[in-house]
Write a structure and sequence with these properties.
This protein is α/β, with parallel strands linked by helices and 397 residues long. The chain has 3 domains: 63 residues, PUA domain (Archaeosine Trna-guanine Transglycosylase, Chain: A, domain 4, Roll); 112 residues, RNA methyltransferase domain (HRMD) like (Transcription Regulator spoIIAA, 2-Layer Sandwich); 189 residues, Rossmann fold. 27% of the residues lie in helices and 25% in strands. The protein contains 10 helices and 19 strands. The strands form 4 sheets. Strands 15-14-13-16-17-19-18 form a 7-stranded mixed sheet, with helices on both faces. Helix 2 packs across helix 4 and helix 6 packs parallel to helix 7.
């Protein structure tokens, strides 16, 4: 690529080491100076202190100053995004995720698909796009067109949902709306089970597709068990528990809207099934009030307790407290599925928090499974920060 109109940002001496290892972030402190005349979202070149070109990326104001798109002098044009999206979809075809009994999956997982700042989830014939950087916001129309042109993907509608994900300082005023197509129904299928997906008003893109494999695992443990699904949101774990033959399933969430959606999803798959009930209540209050031994399978899948490292201490205390209640109340021979989706909390920190809670309970606890996000949420080997979901399946005697 030879485009003299593309600005070049130069690194301080020694700050190119992480980029030479293909880490996709340039921090503002690594630059010789923060440019004042470059608009956020602009494509820039990044050069080492000696002038050697390292690659190209999207510029933005903040601690992450550049998100690298390629480690070469590559043209960042329509063809670039079409190529990267085709590569991302090829991986999902390899994983066998687009099939008659499964129409919900993540198509683009940011840095894990070498498109930092972009998330795309697919629900049937609708792709929900989230931009986490100004650069991706500005190319949203290009991305939408490329998505509908992916051979075999069956994407007819593209809904843009970035009002809560873009940096507020960028003052971009994004509007959630359809870029291409329109509403054509909101039921998607995951492993043969059907779910109403609320991408218009729901959290994230409307459904947590990152728990698909873990929900399937829970289904295999559910037969004959009394199941408590805390922080149920859309009731994914609850529906899998019912499908797995659970004796009883109780879904709890502080949001009445989430409880209503959980009830709708249970009814969609198991109409009139009296094994399920949903409760709108604070999770800690519910755990405190319930009887000892009332459940022999408990799911703890809370929202992120720590979105930033400044909240890490309080988050770890929250995980300890939450898991301690579950260890205290679960029936003998019970199984606990416990998760953290906080990127700021490391896998080891989460384990220590759960282990501390187990020790507090004085019960014998064994690890059955160590869980993470599924393969359609890939982690670039050069960007370990992309591994955010951590889970343990524990047997409590």
């Amino acid at each position: 690529m030879t485009d003299n109109n593309i600005p070049t940002l130069r690194l301080r001496r020694g700050k190119e080491e992480s980029l030479d290892r293909l880490h996709p972030w340039v921090f503002s402190g690594a630059l010789t100076e923060m440019p004042r005349d470059i608009e956020e979202g602009t494509v820039v070149r990044v050069a080492a202190s000696d002038g050697r070109l390292i690659g190209v990326g999207h510029f933005q104001i903040g601690s992450i100053a550049v998100r690298m798109l390629d480690f070469a002098d590559t043209a960042i044009d329509d063809a670039f995004f079409a190529r990267r999206l085709a590569e991302a979809y090829a991986l999902r075809r390899t994983l066998g995720l687009r099939r008659p009994d499964n129409t919900a999956f993540r198509l683009v997982h940011g840095e894990g698909d070498f498109l930092p700042g972009l998330v795309v989830d697919v629900y049937g014939d609708t792709a929900v796009v989230q931009a986490h950087s100004p650069g991706m916001h500005f190319v949203r129309d290009t991305i939408a067109r490329a998505l509908t042109e992916l051979p075999g993907a069956g994407i007819a509608n593209v809904y843009y949902k970035s009002e809560t994900t873009l940096p507020y300082k960028a003052r971009l005023d994004p509007q959630n709306d359809y870029i291409i197509g329109s509403y054509s129904g909101n039921v998607a299928t995951e492993n043969g089970l059907k779910f109403h997906i609320d991408w218009l008003r729901g959290q994230k893109t409307g459904f947590f597709v990152d728990q698909r494999d873990n929900r399937a695992l829970l289904g295999r443990y559910s037969a004959g068990r009394r199941v408590l699904n805390m922080f149920c949101y859309t009731g994914g774990f609850s529906v899998y528990a019912l499908a797995g033959g659970a004796k009883e399933v109780v879904s709890v969430d502080s949001s009445a809207k989430a409880v209503a959606l959980t009830e709708a999803n249970a009814e969609l798959n198991f109409p009139g099934d009296t094994r399920h009930r949903a409760v709108a209540e604070d999770a800690f209050r519910h755990l405190d009030a319930m009887e000892h031994g009332a459940y022999d399978l408990i799911v703890l899948d809370p929202p992120a307790f720590a979105k930033h490292r400044s909240a890490l201490h309080n988050a770890l205390q929250g995980y300890r407290r939450l898991n301690a209640r579950a260890f205290e109340k679960i029936a003998p021979g019970g199984v606990l599925f416990t998760f953290s989706c906080s990127q700021a909390v490391s896998r080891e920190q989460f384990r220590v928090a759960v282990f501390s809670a187990a020790a507090q309970s004085r019960r014998r606890v064994r690890i059955l499974h160590q869980l993470t996000q599924p393969a359609d949420h890939p982690v670039s080997i050069y960007h370990p920060e992309g591994e955010y979901l951590k889970g343990l399946v524990l047997y409590v005697e």
